[in-house]
Design a protein that fits this description.
Order of helices and strands of chain B: EEEEEEEEEEEE
Number of helices of chain A: 0
Strand content of chain A: over 45%
Strand content of chain B: over 45%
Number of helices of chain B: 0
Distance between the termini of chain B: 37 Å
Largest interface: A-B, 25 and 26 residues
Distance between the termini of chain A: 37 Å
Radius of gyration of chain A: 14 Å
Oligomer: heterodimer
Radius of gyration of chain B: 13 Å
Shape of chain A: globular
Number of strands of chain A: 11
Largest sheet of chain A: 6 strands, mixed
Number of strands of chain B: 12
Structural class of chain B: mainly beta
Helix content of chain B: under 10%
């Protein structure tokens, strides 16, 4: 079983739609959680950190459920520029703070 | 801004050749990482380092080694390249907060013939 699992998609949505991505992690030593965004042929970049209380950044909302070992990302009012791959990322608090990436969920937003 | 620089964007090597991939960061970060990225598999951790001369195996270290002689530089070495090491290689660094953001280089696309 992969340590971080995501639905690979692709998700094809129209502009203005709300889309939700889910992610599960298996290691209970997971300490920090993030969503990264990766555009085609580019390097990943941090989109937002994920906190237990939930956090919002404009149209983006991230949630963490430690009991279920589940992370989510909600994008409201999708824009064409949101088209990218979204990577769920977990850092462990053991072994030198190893950081593990999910395989990513591809999003296409259509006009 | 943090700058992570990978020495080569594109390389083509032959099976059995020794390959060096260099990565330099300019923000005095303690942690550095090497990942490879393949379609459908995402980023997989090869090796990481949390201090000079320190290294830890990631999930797929076989066929690779690393060197961290200076804080700013983390090198990935393929002692004898094989075709299954054809991939995109991404270097990343992270600052003193061990659980903080990773900053990536632009990647090195390696093709082994």
């Amino acid at each position: 079983r992969k340590e971080v699992e995501q639905d690979p998609g692709p998700f094809n949505v129209p502009e203005g739609a709300t889309v939700a991505f889910n992610c599960t992690y298996s290691n209970s030593a997971s300490q920090s959680f993030f969503w990264y965004r990766q555009d085609c042929r580019k390097e990943p970049k941090l989109l937002m950190s994920v906190y237990s209380s939930g956090n919002e950044d404009g149209r983006f909302t991230a949630q963490l459920n430690r009991a279920s070992q589940y992370i989510s990302l909600l994008i409201r009012d999708s824009k064409l520029s949101d088209s990218a791959t979204y990577l769920c990322v977990v850092t462990l608090n053991t072994g030198g703070f190893k950081t593990i990436f999910g395989a990513g969920t591809r999003l296409f937003v259509k006009a | 801004d943090v700058k992570v620089t990978q020495s080569s964007r594109y390389l083509v090597k032959r099976t059995g050749e020794k390959v060096f991939l260099e990565c330099v960061q300019d923000m005095d970060h303690e942690n550095m990482f090497w990942y490879r990225q393949d379609p459908g598999l995402g980023l997989r951790l090869i090796y990481f380092s949390y201090d000079v001369k320190m290294k830890e195996k990631g999930d797929i270290p076989e066929g690779y080694s690393v060197s961290r002689e200076k804080k700013e530089r983390f090198s990935l070495i393929l002692e004898s390249a094989s075709t299954n090491q054809t991939s995109m290689y991404l270097c990343a660094s992270r600052g003193g907060i061990n659980t903080g953001e990773l900053f990536f280089g632009e990647g090195s696309r390696l093709t082994v013939l």
